[in-house]
Amino acid sequence: MRRLKQPSTVDIHQMKKFPIVAVLLPGAFLAILNQTLLAPAIPIMMDDLHITENTAQWVMTIFMLVNGIMIPITAFLIETFTTRRLFLFAMTLFALGTAVCAVSPNFTILMIGRIIQASGAGIMMPLMMTVFLLIFPIEKRGTAMGTVGLVIGFAPAIGPTLSGWLLEKYTWPVLFYIVLPLAIIDMIIAYFVMKNVTTRTFPKVDVLSIILSTFGFGGLLYGFSSAGNYGWSSLSVIASIMVGAVTLILFIQRQFKLRQPILEFRVFKNQTFRITTIIGMIAFLGLISAETILPIYMQNMAGYSPLDTGLVLFPGALLMGLMSPINGRIFDKFGARWLVIIGLTLLTVTSFLYTQLTPTTSLSFLAIVFTIRMLGISMVMMPATTAGLNQLPNRLIPHGTAMNNTMRQVAASIGTGILVTVMTSKAFLTSNSPGLVEQIQGVNVAFFVSAILSLIALGLAFLIKGTTPAEERATIAEAESKS
User: Fold this and answer.
1) How far is C-alpha 362 from the chain's CA centre?
2) What are the residue ranges of helices labelled H in 107-234?
3) Contact at 8 Å (CB) between 277 and 388?
4) Distance between CA atoms of residues 213 and 402, nearest Å
5) 447: Cβ–Cβ under 8 A, 6 or more apart, which residues?
6) How deeply is 112 buried, as exposed, middle or buried, from its count of CB atoms within 10 A (0-12, 13-18, 19+)?
7) Rounded CA separation 274/252 (Å)
8) pTM score, two decimals?
9) Phi, psi at residue 96, to the nearest 5°?
10) Where residue 429 falls among pLDDT bands split at 50, 70, 90?
11) Model pLDDT, residue 54
């Protein structure tokens, strides 16, 4: 097989970056937006499609599940296909799935559409992060990855607000009809402007690894995400977690034996990457848990409307989107250490503030605390991620980004399942039919657990090196010249 000539590092850095960024960001934004876009539509779908609440929840669960299964194999896909071809393939899958969902006459077809949609979405985020890390030199990666933080924080938070507003006037298929043309436009532009920047190493297809990865990550994601609905004693939850854990161990063992692994776990040998990945997992859990638990508290316990919930969440999401690029520039000048320490301090303090919720907690308190919380998360997520990925050589960046995204997805799934369980278990601890006070006490305990996790991450943050990206670049260059 004749291998295509790869662009050199000089060629990559001299490329026009704006067109590449301009097609990657909207694609990733649409992909992540669809994780939460359908949440307010579930009650309407239950009536239209004649399904139960547990069945309807699958429109959310299946997207996260397939997304999580796809992410671990993106490193293999990035090393096998050209950047342009893989992006167009991912967006085609996403657009096709969106079209199927829009015209679906029943729940089965809707689920097929969501699976196709999530298959494309799962490729987008690791691909975008990999491309950004390759086209920008190390001293400018903070600013570049700050724009990625905008997508990660803003898209899932704006989803429920946007769909809630649309559903006041239209029915649920309109959510897909609005996304579809945007995806198609992005594909058309990408066809003309997208460039090939990743290096193709043509790794051997290891079918067993793909199977083990699917059952491993899929089993864990399904098991923990279903625990909140079915309970930890459910046979399906226990079986899923056990199958996921066993196959994941087998998958990891096999990757260490392969000369060209599907997912390179040796990236965890780097201490900075290991620490920043754990910090990123806890920060992402802090983001997702608040966006999951707060609406439950506000609408089911405090008597607020869905619109009130959206108004509480939106300012924080907007601030996170605005601050992520700014934090990226700060990272480029001063490094990640103090950004992450300050951000985790804000996350910890706001988590403790949310342990004092009552039936009469004001909207202004909820909104202000959530906004400060999102400011803290914006100072942690991408700076920590970039600091870890900066420690890896270019050949391991696809594996690092895939691993980072996979661990975040696992953390959100496992963490949210545990926190929802803590919330309900505490409520039922004192009574078989808990009242309002007991239910809110469960919410407070869940945020207390979140605060303790943030405190652990804060301790880890002091282990991050206090170096700037420019200093890191010089160190890496020196190490590479000696090796």
Assistant:
1) 30
2) 107-135, 141-167, 173-193, 207-230
3) yes
4) 13
5) 293, 351, 352, 354, 355, 357
6) middle
7) 16
8) 0.80
9) -60, -45
10) low
11) 63
